[in-house]
Amino acid sequence: MRKCSLDSLNAVFAKIAEAAELYLPVNCTDGSAAFSKWEEGKEWSNNLNTVKSPKEFFFPQTEDLVAFKTSGKNIEIIDTRKEREDFVVFGVRACDVKAFEVLDNVFLLKEPYDSYYTNRREHGVIISVACNRPADTCFCKTFGIDPADPQGDISVWKTADSLYWQANTERGAALLEKIADLTEDCDTAAVDAEKEKITKIMSKLPLANLTTEGWGAGKTQELFDSPIWAEMSEACLGCGTCTFVCPTCQCYDIKDFNTGKGVVRFRCWDSCMYSDFTKMSAGQPRLSQKERFRQRFMHKLVYYPENNNGLFSCVGCGRCVAKCPISMNIAKVMKKIGGKENE
Amino acid sequence: MNNVEALIPKIGVITDIRIDTPDIKTFRVVTPDGEKPFEHRPGQCAMLSMPGVGEAMFSITSSPTNTEYMEFSIKKCGCVTEWLHQAEVGQQVTVRGPYGNPFPVDDAFRGKNMLFVAGGVGLAPLRSVINYCRHYRENYGTIDIVYGSRSKDDLLDYREIIEEWSKDEGVNVHLTIDREQEGWDGHVGFVPNYVKELGFSTDKTAILCGPPIMIKFTLDGLYSLGFEKTQIYTTLEMRMKCGIGKCGRCNVGSKYICKDGPVFRFDELDELPDEY
Ligand SMILES: Cc1cc2nc3c(=O)[nH]c(=O)nc-3n(C[C@H](O)[C@H](O)[C@H](O)COP(=O)(O)OP(=O)(O)OC[C@H]3O[C@@H](n4cnc5c(N)ncnc54)[C@H](O)[C@@H]3O)c2cc1C
Ligand code: SF4
Ligand code: SF4
Ligand code: FES
After folding, report:
1. Is the ipTM above a cut-off of 0.85?
2. Of A129, A207, B79, B196, which sees the most CB atoms within 10 A?
3. Where are the domains of chain A?
């Protein structure tokens, strides 16, 4: 394990940024936090998790897939893919790191591999940070995620005066090597104490005792026709906010854009909460918001686990809990079936 | 960087356009070198597109035994399909695939008496299977085909049915149209009723494809004749974008229809929630 003082952090960031683009959470003028490209003078903010998740570094909100030129009856296909330059994302919390495992299962580990996502995963180094500033909306523990022990290529712990670094992968070790001049060897005592502190903080969160009881693979028959769907979806606006802020939501649309010089085929995030998501000439299998609402939660808590060895596709980051305009969210849905509430 | 990318299509050229019905045309597609774009199995689909218009999923209606080209029977109903309907021979399109699971023509279907039941454009995916079975005739028992449409003019592949299928030994074609029409001396009535009238014996493996209402009543008919769910197959249709189980659009429960389907046996469908 290596450590550096918080005072030297700027120098460490500068060193990392010499070798690769560096992104980290910074404060926004409205008090929220967002990932931003580091440059001299930008300060890491660790108070709040970002409104948008770091998912977009690997699965951007919109991205070009391929381009076409047409002339007369002919079409030319132009492969516009480029090798991604190396980049580093610093300050990713445990929940969001786990979310990459969820996305990897879709894009990286099941054939056919998604070359766009794979390319970014191959070139991105994830530096996670142990989370000692959770929000009241957080419930990562529900999904067995330990915020005190985040994964990623490198894990980092912050104490009052220092930052502790631990490499988990070869890529992580290579990056630590680059900043070796600015860090020093240390034992794990301070980190162990920090972990204990974090565990205490987490146990006091409002959703600390939420469980996944009643959910998981094999529950389709039991839960699909449950009366909770009609009841809980009643006020849902179908705005899609919950899906756009979610670090594990994977759905995308494919569209063509005519640039005037040619056609660009791009993909962009889509939402199962939208009425035209499944609309066909032959009919509409999800007629009302009830069916769309059910799809979102059944996918995260039943269908995805069924296809991925029981892994849930919610990481308890709490973003949808914080952002839903009608205060509906996955924690409420889970409780309704079996997951217990605190006290 | 991994250079293979399923979402990047290849070029196809339309070399023939057949007008089947007032709203269905059959397009023959090859690569610019004149080859079949790729190999497929009966029941699989492909994404066709015109850049700038959009992409859409279609069953590959030609049989895998056709080594020269691929065919798609396409009903006009929206952006891409309307565009295709105004296209001319020589037009290039893009094509990617094959997608989805095939009908089990080489295992479960082998040695079986086959019963195909189709309505409207629903014949498109079945034509691939029918021609596969006709090609490997010795591997299958009798072949019965019940096919119906609104009118005589709405029957897909009419010439092929009359000139080829109905002339084959052991192949029985039963055509029907919804209402009486001048020049039609065949059967009149809806497909499900015709299936019941024909009263098939239960030694057959049945494959259904057509509008949901036709499927529903045909199923009832087959059940009343004593058929089991395990001997009836169908192919599902959901809105699709990626075709490879990633865009999250086409699922029914935990199954992605583009990848785990579109072909299902009815007992398998029982395990899925009723959302298709
Ligand atoms: C596995 C599979 C196999 C298929 N095989 C065949 C086949 O062999 N032959 C065949 O003809 N068809 C087949 N289809 C159906 C075919 O894919 C659709 O007809 C095609 O996608 C329509 O595309 P389009 O661009 O022409 O229509 P679109 O422009 O997409 O519109 C189709 C209809 O849906 C509605 N719609 C679509 N998007 C929206 C939206 N965003 N908002 C509101 N309304 C909307 C429109 O009102 C319109 O009526 C198959 C489909 C699947 C999934
Ligand atoms: S469903 Fe909500 S809490 Fe779960 S990962 Fe997505 S945004 Fe976070
Ligand atoms: S954010 Fe809330 S209102 Fe909007 S789609 Fe999600 S559950 Fe419905
Ligand atoms: S079409 Fe994208 S998941 Fe099936």
Report:
1. yes
2. A129
3. 2-61+83-202, 220-249+271-338
Band of pLDDT at residue A277, cut at 50, 70 and 90:
confident
Domains of chain B: 3-99 (2.40.30.10), 113-235 (3.40.50.80)
Do B254 and A307 count as a contact with CB atoms less than 8 A apart?
Answer: yes
Antiparallel, parallel or unpaired: β B143-149 and B171-177: parallel
Asked if A79 reaches chain B (Cβ–Cβ under 8 Å), the answer is yes
* A279 interfaces chain B, CB cutoff of 8 Å: yes
The pLDDT of B248-255, averaged and rounded, is: 93
Q: What's the predicted TM-score (pTM) here?
A: 0.92
Are the C-beta atoms of residues A320 and A102 closer than 8 Å to each other? no
How confident is residue B2, by pLDDT bands cut at 50, 70 and 90?
low
**Run of H or E including A14:** helix A9-19
Nearest CA in chain A to B260: A307
Closest ligand by atom to A241 CA: 3
Which of B7, B248, B272 lies at the smallest CB-CB distance from A272?
B248
Given this model, what pLDDT does residue B131 score? Answer: 97
CB A209 within 8 A of CB A142: no
pLDDT of residue A77: 96
Mutate to test the interface with B, among A85, A266, A281 (most CBs of B within 10 A): A281
- The rounded distance, in Å, linking the Cα atoms of B74 and B271 is 31
- CB of A263 within 8 Å of a chain B CB? The answer is yes
Q: How far is B191 from chain A (nearest CA, A)?
A: 19
Residues in chain A: 343
pLDDT, tens digit, 9 for 90 and up, residues A108-127: 998 899 999 999 999 999 99
- Out of A220, A278, A307, closest to residue B238 by CB: A278
- CA of B135 to nearest chain A CA: how many angstroms apart? 31
Q: Give me the long-range contacts of A70-73 (CB less than 8 A, separation at least 24).
A: A70/A262, A70/A263, A70/B51, A70/B52, A73/B88, A73/B90, A73/B91, A73/B92
Dihedral of alpha carbons B70, B6, B94, B241, sign:
positive
